[in-house]
């Protein structure tokens, strides 16, 4: 990327040995790009798969979560722009240049994200609305399945046309985000009290609160192999807890309580509808944690 703004690429790995090399290798020969791979105490030898590549590696002694890994990565570098990329995602040089160009040309934009495609080439809906009581309760009652494109029924922007043009959604999926370092410094980086889920929602909200825009860039494309799968049953309680934590952080007390009720109702309704024992167990734990611990 000669004569382009320098970029630090941060990849947080956790047992990502199957995908990590394909993620990191495209950046190996890009000028003005440094790669920082933060490994969250993997047990599959993930870092060994990139041992011959010019990447800085940070091996954590425990899994502190995605946000904590992101913070270790961006603080280890110094470039004015930081690309956060999931280990199961890939971004080529042309698309990186498109994202960089957007930030170079628009100083008020703090975060940009590309079009996301699944491994089969299908579109992933990466543009999102901030959580609202109406959407939380709509999802709990499965209304988002009846009215999938209604803005009140879901936080995900599901209108395909919205992905053909530049946009300014409330927030973007954290699978691939290019962020100004000065934004990270101003807002204190990622909130590592979120172990997993809602940390990207929180990051974009705090960037907007600080006066920066969040922009979707359709001329840049990333492939996200794992982005279409639903949360594994063991992660369902974590998803519920993160949603409640986000509400408590950003909403007035009454609305935060309403969000907690809506998340609990969602866990209960999905528990009732679950078809497998494992999924039922995941939703049951989410319901218990939301009611007793959140």
Description:
The chain is an alpha/beta fold. It has 2 domains: 7-129 and 169-224, Alpha-Beta Complex (Spore Coat Polysaccharide Biosynthesis Protein SpsA, Chain A); 233-292, no CATH class. 38% of the residues lie in helices and 20% in strands. Strands 1, 2, 3, 4, 5, 6, 7, 10 and 11 form a 9-stranded mixed β-sheet that branches. A two-stranded antiparallel ribbon has the order 8-9. Helix 1 (20-24) links the parallel strand 1 (7-13) and strand 2 (33-39). Helix 9 (253-273) runs antiparallel to helix 10 (277-292). The longest helix has 21 residues, at 253-273. The N and C termini lie far apart (46 Å).
Describe the structure concisely:
The chain has 294 residues and is of the alpha/beta class.
Top keywords for this entry?
alpha/beta; 2 domains; 10 helices; 294 residues; single chain; two-stranded antiparallel sheet; 11 strands
